Amino acid sequence: MPEPTNKGAETTIIAKFKKLWKFYILQSLLAAAALAVLVLILGKDKMVIISAMGATSFIVFAMPKAASAQTRNVIGGHLVGLACGAVFYFTALPYFVEYPFAVAIAIFLMVALDVEHPPAAGTALAVVINEVSRDAFITIMVSTLVLSQCRYYLRNYLKDLV
């Protein structure tokens, strides 16, 4: 019995790539440039906290029209993640309870407050694992502002790539 082929999907992927390849390259380079600016401004000692911004940059530059890429969701979602991580950072619960519950409560609040931004769950986890400080807050907020403003000002030039 012959194996089923996926030629239709392959053809669609190739056609989409041929049509948007310039945007794939441009938007990937824009994401790299935005993250480079963040790394230069914030320094390499904040890499664990800023790692959630890698996922945010994917959403902002590969899916700029998505709801989760909107400024309200990027900033609001990361604020929720920051708050949830901070709350659980100060609890005396074991880490195997703190870490998953920081993420779970962040997800719940993002959905309830209509500020869904999946990478912000990573912010909650990064904060509960690493630190709660003024520097962490500034790092997260500067990062979200830079990335969301890049998307806002480039919105007429960015295409949804997924």
Write the topology of this structure.
Elements: H1 7-42, H2 47-50, H3 52-62, H4 71-89, H5 95-113, H6 119-129, H7 134-154
Helix pairs in contact: 1-3, 1-7, 3-6, 3-7, 4-5, 4-6, 4-7, 5-6
Written account of the structure:
The structure is a single chain. This protein has 162 residues and is an all-alpha fold. It has one domain. 75% of the residues lie in helices and 0% in strands. Helix 3 packs parallel to helix 7 and helix 4 packs antiparallel against helix 5. It is globular, with a radius of gyration of 18 Å. The two termini are 34 Å apart. The model has no long low-confidence stretch (mean pLDDT 89).
Give descriptors for this structure:
7 helices; mainly alpha
Structurally, how many domains make up the residues?
1
How large is the count of helical segments? 7
Structural class: mainly alpha
Mean pLDDT: 89
The rough form would be described as globular
Strand content: under 5%
Q: For the terminal residues, how far apart are their CA atoms?
A: 34 Å
List the uncertain runs: none
Count of extended strands: 0
Give me the Rg, rounded: 18 Å
How does the major sheet shape up?
none
- Helical proportion, percent range: over 70%
- What is the string of helix and strand elements? HHHHHHH
